[in-house]
Amino acid sequence: MASPIRIPDVANKVVAVLGLARSGLAAVEALHNSGAIVWAWDDAEKARANVPEPLLADLHQADWSKAMALVMSPGIPTTFPKPNPVAAAAKSAGLPLISDIELLHRAEPKARFVGITGTNGKSTVTTLLGHILKSAGRSVAVGGNLGQAVLGLPALGGGGIYVLELSSYQLEITPSPISDVAILLNITPDHLDRHGGMEGYVAAKKLIMRPKGTTSIGIIGVDDEPCRQMFAALKAEGKRRMIPISAELAIENGVSAVDGKLVDAISGQAIEILDLNTVARLPGKHNWQNATACYAAARALGLGIDEVIEGIKTYPGLVHRQELVATIDGIRFVNDSKATNADAAAKALACYDNIYWIAGGKPKEGGLAGLEAFYPRIRRAYLIGEAAQAFGKQLGSAVKATQSGTLDQAVLAAAADAKQDAAQSPVVLLSPACASFDQYNDFEERGDHFRQIVATLQAQGAA
């Protein structure tokens, strides 16, 4: 049985934990088991009920002179749009505000870390790279911004590799440079309210590229302007070995996937490795870029070319990201609930024709802006949640739209229309271009609900 994480230098010291969701609960347990005196708090009474009473302390009343650090859940703001009062008080008292990622890095100094960020694609890259490494027999643990909280992962020691999805929020409260291999996929506007604008958002993403040591490797997608500029600046600094990746251009001394042909030119000579068009679980240009990142990272971690190819070919796909849930009467039902902004939805819309598109939820800045080129692929849109009325106005006469309100109604209407139209290879696509918080706790719950509705349809068809 794998050993749990033990955090050094906290025994008999006070460590405060703010936010008692997935990462906060794991932090409380790991700190307590490591001998720390834990002050745990969440403003929601329901969340506090998950922590033993002796570990709870109202941090609004805390004497910060007695504590050594405040461990923050990443969803809690420390600066923009307005700092959380507890975070502001701790910071004013000179306490470091840190993440569970920081604690894992301190607990596992001999392990190697792969940090993965980007506006879109990071979950696919995290799970794909983890799959490649596990398939090759490496000791691997995968977590961070998806799946298991990092302090619930096993202790791996010197032979282990942590593959971590890192959000901009997590990066801002992880003061140490943790990534032996750092991957930045892309940058498009997102979470601007939390970072004070685009400049702050780019700066937060750039934190992943802080060099951990002389052997640190940085992998950056160069298909968008912010990342191109960052790559050029970091390469000029010379503090990390930099590898560019692209799904649009054949690039020197990097990895590319133009038209789906994975090409390794890291050493200068271009060698075609794999035709990604043959990998059903990685459709579209955005997934080709994901594959280039995983290839470059896996090779940097010492895997052979054949090991990487085998891992890519056997990848089972990511739940809630273009997940084929079922095919009923020739209609494919695809769960892309993780598409929480327009740019992410564009990746799915580019992969299909004759789309019956379910969109809406809690809208992001700009709404559907930038998706106009995909409108000819959409047979009809089914709009749900807070964004429904605004999305209807944005679509105008370009796309026929139905105000469905709820996911149940949207799926039923889309399925009926797809069956009646008898278009070639129809797809009922949940790709909301919105956050889920108006109707669901998170995108996973929304995607699970979609799967449940489709399963009921499938059962009715089989009856």
**Quick check: average pLDDT?**
95
Largest sheet: 9 strands, mixed
How many β-strand runs?
21
Report, as a whole number of angstroms, the end-to-end distance.
45 Å
Computed Rg: 23 Å
Describe the oligomeric state of these chains in a short phrase: single chain
- Give the overall shape: globular
Number of domains: 3
Can you identify the CATH superfamily of the largest domain?
Mur-like, catalytic domain
The tally of helices reads 15
CATH architecture descriptor name of the largest domain:
3-Layer(aba) Sandwich
Strand content is 15-25%
Helix content: 25-40%
What does this structure look like?
There is one protein chain. With 463 residues, the protein is of the alpha/beta class. The chain folds into 3 domains: 14-98, 3-Layer(aba) Sandwich (Rossmann fold), CATH 3.40.50; 104-313, 3-Layer(aba) Sandwich (UDP-N-acetylmuramoyl-L-alanine:D-glutamate ligase), CATH 3.40.1190.10; 323-462, Mur ligase, C-terminal domain (Protein-Tyrosine Phosphatase, Chain A). 33% of the residues lie in helices and 21% in strands. The chain contains 15 helices and 21 strands. The strands form 4 sheets. The chain has a 9-stranded mixed beta sheet, with helices on both faces. A 6-stranded mixed beta sheet has the order 14-15-20-16-18-19, with helices on both faces. Helix 5 (122-135) crosses helix 10 (285-300) and helix 14 crosses helix 15 (443-462). The longest helix is centred in the C-terminal third of the chain and has 20 residues, at 443-462. The radius of gyration is 23 Å and the shape is globular.
